[in-house]
Amino acid sequence: MREHVIVSSTTDSETTARELAAQAVEARLGACAQIVGPILSVYRWDGEVHADPEWRVEIKTAADRVPALVELIKQQHNYEVPEIIATPIEGGSAEYLEWLVQETRTG
Which SUPFAM superfamilies would you find in this protein's record (predicted)? Predict the structure, then answer.
């Protein structure tokens, strides 16, 4: 069975989240993406604790597309160190997972 992954990242605005999601899908690096937010992120940066609203982008993709997707997010992101986390999908609908792979191939 092929490996399937959810790659997630957070952004500082819904507009930026939509742009990242659209770029990933248009480039066939993700089959689909959901945007969740706003959420409140609490984190330490430059020695200070911050609490800021963010939007999470969750991109479903095939495992072999993850390196290129990570590079796209790094290039397009406006954070100095963007959150990029890849989580394996352990199971699910076989039809959906096959569609996911097909949509990450050139068509």
Answer: GlnB-like
